[in-house]
Structures are given as structure tokens and as C-alpha cells.
Amino acid sequence: MIFSLLDELLIFSAATVLVALILGRGLAVGWMVTILYGGQLLVLIKMAALGYGGDPIASELSLSVMGQDLSWRFDALSWFFALITLVAALLTSWFSCGEWERKFKQQGGNVWLFHLAMALNVFTMLILLASGDLLSLFIGWELVSWAGFLLMAVAGGVATKAAMRYITYAVVGGMTIFGGIALVYAAAGSLQYEAILIAVEKMSTGQLWMLVLLFGSGFGIKMGLLPFHLWQAAAYAETPGPGSAFLGAISSRMGLFAILLVLVKLFGIVNIDSLKIPFTLIDARDLLAWIAVFTIIFPTYTALKQNDARYLLAWHGIGQGGYMLLGLVTANSLGAAGGLLHVLNYAACQAALLMAVFAVMHRTGTADLNKLGGLVARMPLSFLVLLTGIIGLAGLPPMNGFVSKWLVYRSLLEDGMPLLFLGTIIGTLGTILSVYKLIHNMFLGQLRVEHEHIREAPWSMMIPMLILAGTIFTTGLLPGIPLTWVTAALQTIGLTGPEITLGGIESSSGSLDMIWVIGVLFAGFGIGAVIFYSAGPSKRVHQLDNYAGGHFLSADVRYQYSDNFYSGLMHLIRGWYRGSFQWLENSITSLVEFLSLGMQGIYRRANSEFYLLSTALFIIAWVVF
Amino acid sequence: MSTLQKIPVIEEKKGNPLARVFDDLVRFCRSRSLFILHYCTGCGAIELPPAMTSRFDMERLGIQPMVSPRQADILLITGYVSIKTLKRVILTYEQMGSPKYVVGICSCTVNGGMYWQSYATAKKLDEYMPVDLYIAGCMPRPEAVISGLQKLMDRINSGEADSWQDYYRNYDYYLGNQQKLFGEDWQTPTDIITEAKHYELMGEGTLGDHTRLLEQHQKPLEALDMRLGHNIKESVE
């Protein structure tokens, strides 16, 4: 039997899981697993033709279950997502080797379980990405859900609670997706994509609505779309460092992958566009777009309130998912490219940011934004990585986030959707404010006495962080490279991408050339630098030789304002934080509890033999008639 | 020490004429872009809002308020300087980047003004730091403030306003007066003597008895260093 490249990749990935499982107790497992991720990445690079519009690669393995053919294959979309997954896995795993592992072990963490969970996550994600029909998609989906649960629960304690909350959501999501698949099967008689495409054309509006709601909410749970987003922040933030960076970078985007596959490819944006909501002016596509915008706004402003760097970034992860979905729902060439490109850009930024935060945590033991400050003097490289990351996350040049967000804004303006555009702008404002809070409270301001002697993060952490920072800048300078893969991926789901140049896009209504943008920006920096350096040598002064209203500063005086940051703004918007979604979740929980109590009451009080007898009779009658 | 000392005239080095053109240009630009850091007591502060805002509008002359000493050019003292405050004023003055100019507004800065009997005020500002310009009056009107600032601009443009150098050249004198008021263990975070060497402004009066006294008491602040890398074998606390 000849293996295809995809088989090689999956076997490699499975081998990684086995290595983590068997040799995980031994030394240097982190390095081994990291090298194996690198191997997987090499196999994936061998498939690079996919990213330039090559033919899909099928797996030699195919199963037949109950008359359903299961198949696995890789196309450009899968390849694009798999690339992000493997690079994220490689770098986060690299980050965990050596020092981090040792400290994790000291604090009573289970290194073996951690690496196993990471390897399982990567393996299951690849299986999901390779799915060739709805049934294998569902299998992959469930595997990914449970693997994610394992990684979230590794740390124990608070993390277990968050993971339990996640798995409750995930099971409900899995059930809705299963219901959707059952409906599709009833309509199409098969779970192959080709059969479904034909069946969708004949579906009534009611059926389509049902499917859009079922699949949309099921996949949206993983993605953290409103109102199913409450589980995500705590679950991702409480995961051990590198795992958190990995999950934050790519895990939720599996939901986006599935949404693209099912809602965009199978049902088609045009069909979704025709689903009107009665008595209103909006249709299902507008509904999705507005959900995406609210997914941008609310979690971003929740992030603004956080005092823990990990939570702040995890809440942003939910918000940035909204940008991706919004771009893809607009479905014109610019927006779709922007949304899909943002998956890659955001993954790079989020991984870099979380790694920098965990590097600081590794050295100081805390991620509490009110207990840090002034670390730029001690950890300058971490500061640089975090700075790169926040510029990318906020979507400002010269980093990559600017390109994807620019494309999304542009498409909204061209489609004449000013209100959605306004929503994204409000979201971006919140992003900029909160990432400034992050970098200010961690790295700027006054160095605390207790951090006087900390050192820069170890090189085992620093190198992957710097690689990511370089990636963020390079893909911002030459967005043409990832945009080529994005357009190939868009073609597989029936959308067209924009015209690509190396520095951005070519469009009749206004092109974007990042090489020029960054050139102009750096020319400005250059002029500033010339003025600065021509004025003679600068003098470094002590931190306490500082102006604070004329006070004589000493190490025990806090002059840095970090607690209750943005109190003026918070005073203005405090009334908006009502915890409505929390209330909704609690009310649903209470309702389920109440119903189950009622059922218990009936069941326990009455005669259980009578129930058994009547059930048996009913089954016999059903079989007979 | 209450008499004003004569500021020594320093012979200019002869350079090429183009260098002087460049210096003239720099001075011209400098005089048209001034940032004020204002230490304002209650009475003097009243005159500044009308001078800054739309009625008299200092900004048409290129003068703006600034909140931190590191970016400011002018230290504006409007009113009496109590001994407690004088410590802060000196700290702030020393933190300003050169070239810096001090403008004393109101009679209090000239000779103590209506507080001349008070035990708690410093009578003459120029005993503690070099003052470029006094604007007398109690209170001077905003027109007077603005014309005073215009005078300062002219002096900067012509290169006469260089009294900031005097603080370095005669540091010992100023420090002596400060020690008389604040006690022998008086010190600020800024190391003036090192700065004087940095600017090549060491004069005959820079070092003396008072600076020796300072060096005995001084607790030095070391500059923050950037640290990269580490020894992996070291245990992690």
C-alpha cells in the first residue's frame, strides 16, 4: 500500500502522540516532541502545491460505516489551517522545553500529560482538517473537542472548572451539529459533499433556516460567537503557558473552518442571503454579520476590564474571531481574503503575546497587571515581542494585523455597510485601549523593588518568541505571500480572492501596497532617528530621577498609575457592563436544573415497575405496528 | 553671597562661518518653540490662563504649556517660593534638559515681595538657580507676561540667554545657598557635576567646599541597566 503525503502527515502526527505517551516520563520529551512537530511541518511543506491552487491530496484510507463512506483529504483550505496549527504547535512546544518544563514540574504540574494533550490536539485537528465528508467532519469535531478538554484540564484547580464549563458547551454544540447532520442526511440521503450540494438547491426555506441555526450555533460555540462565548476566556487563560498560547492561536478557529466548510461551501452565501427573517429588514447573512460585530465589541470591552494579562488576551481571542467571521460573511473578494488572512495574522500575534506574558510570568510569578511594571529595563526582548504583538493585534501598520483588518474595513465600506463598519471601529478602539493597558502595566512605568533582580526570559523561550515577532513583521511587509494561500483556500469554498501583489492587493477602487506603507513609515522613523542621534549622546537616567509633581521619589513610593486603569472611561461605560450573558447562562442552567428536578420527582415518587411495563408495552407495539 | 556675581564672558572658539549660520538657525528655531513648565502659586497662576488662552494667546508666539520637565524649556515661577517648595523647584529645574531658562514672575521672586518678613519663604530666587528674566509686579498683567516672554525670545535668538550654563559653572555657589537653607545632607537625584563634564561646562566655581560636602553625603543613583541572557545553570528562584 502506497501512502500519500496526507497519510504520511497523519502517521507522523499519530507517532508524535505515541512518543509523548510512551516516552513522556523520560527526559527531554519536550525536545523530542518539538522535533516531531518540525517533521510534520516538513511533510506539510512538501504539500505546499496546495497553497498555490494544486489538486487536493486524498488519503489512501477510506472506511465504510453503515453504508456511509468515510474519506479524508487535504485541500488548500485545510492546508492553510494545518500550516497555522503546526507552526503554532512547533513554536509553543519549543517554548515549553527546558526551563518552563522544569518550573512546571516544580510547581506540581504533569509534564507528561501536558505534552500528550498537546500532541493529541494537533493530531485531532489534522484529522478534522482532513475530513472529506460530513461524517468524518463530525468525528474530527468530537475528537478536537475532547482533546481540547484534556489540555485545558491539565493544570487542575480553577482550570478544571473552566474545562468542565467548556465541555458542557462543547457537548451541547456537538449535539446540535449531530442534529444538523441528521437533517442533512434525511434531505440528501448521503453525507458526501457532492450529494449535499445538490440537495441544498431543493431545500425549502424552513429547512435551510433550521440547518443554518443548528450548524451555526454548534460551530459557533467552539469559535466563541455570542452568546456562546462565556466558556472561552477562563478555559484558555487557565491552561498552562504554552498550551494556552497554542489554544489561543488556533483552537477556536477550527470552528471557523467548519463554518466555512458547511455554511459557505455547502449551503452557499447566496442561499443564506435569501433567508429573510419575517417582519424585519434583515436576512440570515445580516444576522451572522451582526453577531460577528457584537462578538467583536462585547468581548473586547470585557477584555478592557480584566486585570490579569492572560484573561485580557483570552477575551481578545473571542473578539478577533468576530473580525474573521465578519470578513467571510461579506463574501466579496476583499472581505473574505481579509477574514481568512486574519486567522493567520491573529494566530501569530496571539501566540507571541501569550508567550511574552508567560515569559514574564515565568520570571515574576504573576500575570496580575496591578503587580507588575517597569519590566522593560529587565526584559527588553520580551518587551519587543509584546510590542510587536500588540501592534499586530490592534491592526496598526507596520504589522500584519493591519493588512487583514484593512481588507475587512475596505470590503464593508465598498459593500455600503456603514453601521457594521462603525461597529468594527468601536471594537478596534477597545482593542487599542486594552493592549495599551497590557503593555503599560507590565513593561512601562516603575520597576518594582521585588523585580529589581529578575533576568530576561531564557533563550528556549526567547527564540520562538522572536521567530513569531519576525513572522508578524514579515507578513505585514509582504502580505502577498500568505494572501496567495488565502486566495487558493477561498477558491475551494467557492469564493474568489482579490488580485494579489507581493506587497498587498491590486484593486480598481484602491490598492494596498504594504512595502510602500512601511517604507514611508520607516522613512519617518529614519528622520526622527537622524535628529535624535545627531543631537549628541543621550544620557540614561535612573528610574527614580523622575518627575512626579516635584516629589522626591524613592523605591517605596509608587508613582506609576496602573490600578483601576482607565477609571475615567470606565466611569462613562460602567453602566453597560451588566453581565447579561452571564445572566442568560445562569437562567438556562437553572431551567435545566428545575426540569431535571421535576423529572426526578415524578420518577421517584411513582411506581417504577409501572414505568418499565408501559415502556416495554410501547416498544412492543412500535415493533409490531 | 547675596550680591549677583558677574557672569564670566567666555571667548568663542573660531570655527568656520557656516557653523555659525547653523547655530543662528538653531537659536532662531529654539526661540520660536518654547515649552513652559509652570510652577504657579495661587496669585501668579491667575495671570497665566488669560495669557495662554484665546484672549492674549501665547501660542501665536510659539509658547505652550508642557507637563513634564524633561520636555520643557522654560521654568516659570509665578509667586513666592516657600522653602518646602524650593526643594521641589530645584529638583524640577535640575531635571530639565539644557538649554533651559528660568523666568521669575511677580515681586516675590525678585525680593520676597509682600512676604519679605516671612521665615518660610526664599527671598531671592537667583540665589538658588540662575534666573534669565524677572517680570516684576504684584501681579504683572498678562500683557506684561507676554512682553517679558518676547524679551526672553529675543535674548534666546541673539544668544544672550545662556544663564543655564552659569548653574554648571558656579554650581558650588548655588549649592552653598541651597545647603544653607536645607541642611548639609541636601541632595537631588541629578548629578550636576557629571552633567557639567558632559556639557564641557566645568568652570572655576563648579567645584568647591560645598560640592565636597555634597560628595560626603551623596547616595548615588545608578542608571538602570538592560540585562539580556543569563546563565542556564543558575537555579530559578
| Multimeric status of the protein | heterodimer
Shape of chain A: globular
Give the tally of structural domains of chain A: 3
Helix content of chain B: 40-55%
Name the strands of the widest sheet of chain B in spatial order.
Answer: 2-1-3-5-7
User: Which residue ranges of chain A are poorly predicted, with pLDDT under 50 across at least 5 consecutive positions?
Assistant: none
- What's the total helix number of chain A? 25
The structure class of chain A reads mainly alpha
Give the C-alpha Rg of chain B: 20 Å
Mean pLDDT level of chain B: 84
| Strand composition percent of chain A | under 5%
Distance between the termini of chain B: 56 Å
Structural overview:
The complex is a heterodimer of chains A (625) and B (237). In chain A, 50% of the residues are buried. The model of chain A has no long low-confidence stretch (mean pLDDT 87). Chain A has 625 residues and is mainly alpha-helical. Chain A folds into 3 domains: 1-275, no CATH class; 295-510, no CATH class; 582-624, no CATH class. Chain A has helices spanning 5-22, 29-46, 76-96, 99-106, 111-129, 134-153, 158-188, 193-202, 205-223, 232-238, 241-251, 253-267, 269-273, 284-305, 309-330, 333-364, 380-394, 400-414, 418-443, 459-477, 480-492, 514-534, 567-573, 580-605, 608-624; strands at 57-65, 68-74, 499-501, 504-506, 512-513. In chain A, 70% of the residues lie in helices and 4% in strands. In chain A, the strands form 2 sheets. Chain A has a 3-stranded antiparallel beta sheet with strand order 3-4-5. A two-stranded antiparallel sheet of chain A has the order 1-2. Chain A is globular and about 95 Å long. Chain B is of the alpha/beta class. Chain B has a domain at 17-161: Rossmann fold (3-Layer(aba) Sandwich). Helix content of chain B is 40%, strand content 11%. Chain B contains 9 helices and 7 strands. In chain B, the strands form 2 sheets. A 5-stranded parallel beta sheet of chain B has the order 2-1-3-5-7. In chain B, helix 1 (17-31) runs antiparallel to helix 5 and helix 2 (42-52) packs across helix 5. At the A-B interface, helix 4 of A face helix 3 of B.
